[in-house]
Automatic annotation (TrEMBL):
Residues 35-232 form the N-acetyltransferase domain. Keywords: Acyltransferase, Transferase. One of its GO terms (molecular function) is acyltransferase activity, transferring groups other than amino-acyl groups. CDD domains: NAT_SF (cd04301). The keyword Transferase applies. This is Hypp751 protein. SUPFAM superfamilies: Acyl-CoA N-acyltransferases (Nat). The keyword Isomerase does not apply. InterPro entries: Acyl_CoA_acyltransferase (IPR016181), GNAT_dom (IPR000182), YpeA/RimI_acetyltransf (IPR050680). Residues 1-24 have a biased composition (Polar residues). Residues 1-32 are annotated as: Disordered. It comes from Branchiostoma lanceolatum.
Length: 232
């Protein structure tokens, strides 16, 4: 999140601890220490919906307006609940048995889309909010994932669990999942102004190129982005 915000949402994107990771996640569903990372389950829907929206807080607020943020959380949760064909993308981090973070990753040929319904969206966020969401989604539709690549779409950590290594463990799970699928690299997109850039660099990511157009700025509230990549 940007340091200029006066009120932070209750989730932050990638807020790992400073200690050396203990979570190598060789076995996908194995618990090591207080952190367990597993595939999202039905009971995780409300938590995951909230965390994902808050992880995109600035962009979502730009799209629908500050007063509609809670409505957007409810809307996304409904969409996620019925989009069972997408659940394989979602991972949840548990800390001492409680949900603490969530991650979305995608692989080559994973082109399925959310069960988005315009009428439902209008009822939650209004006409302007619906247009804003469509623009935001369109701005990210040109993501091309290669056959040997893994795309980290979202990493969100609940603010109550900052500094406990949740974000780091989720990123390492992405590495593990990618290796199991034969991928040779993991990549993500991040705002150039996001403090997480330095944290990603500590995880082994490097900036490959900046990007952004006037439409990216119009749709997301930020024109300047980085593509960051990590070789496995």
């Amino acid at each position: 999140m940007d340091s200029t915000k006066t009120t932070e949402p209750s989730a932050v994107t990638f807020q790992p601890g400073t200690t050396r990771s203990r979570f190598q996640t060789a076995a996908p569903e194995t618990e090591q220490g207080p952190i367990q990372i597993r595939k999202m389950e039905p009971q995780d829907i409300e938590f995951t919906g909230r965390i994902i929206v808050e992880a995109f807080h600035d962009k979502v607020e730009h799209a629908v307006g500050k007063s509609r943020m809670e409505d957007m959380t409810q809307l996304f949760t409904k969409i996620l609940r019925r989009s069972t064909h997408l659940w394989h993308r979602y991972h949840v981090a548990m800390y001492e048995g409680k949900p603490a973070g969530a991650m979305v990753i995608k692989f080559h040929d994973d082109n399925a889309i959310e069960d988005f319904q315009c009428c439902e969206t209008l009822s939650h966020v209004g006409c302007w909010g619906c247009c804003g969401i469509l623009c935001m989604l369109f701005a990210f539709t040109d993501i091309s994932i290669g056959a040997a690549e893994c795309y980290v779409d979202t990493v969100g950590v609940d603010a109550d669990y900052r500094g406990k290594g949740i974000g780091k463990a989720l990123m390492e799970r992405a590495d593990s999942e990618a290796r199991q699928r034969g991928c040779t690299s993991v990549f993500l997109w991040v705002k150039q102004s996001n403090r997480a850039v330095r944290l990603y660099e500590r995880q082994g990511f490097v900036i490959t190129h900046p990007f952004g157009t006037w439409f990216t700025g119009f749709a997301t509230g930020c024109r300047d982005w980085y593509n960051m990549e990590k070789k496995l």
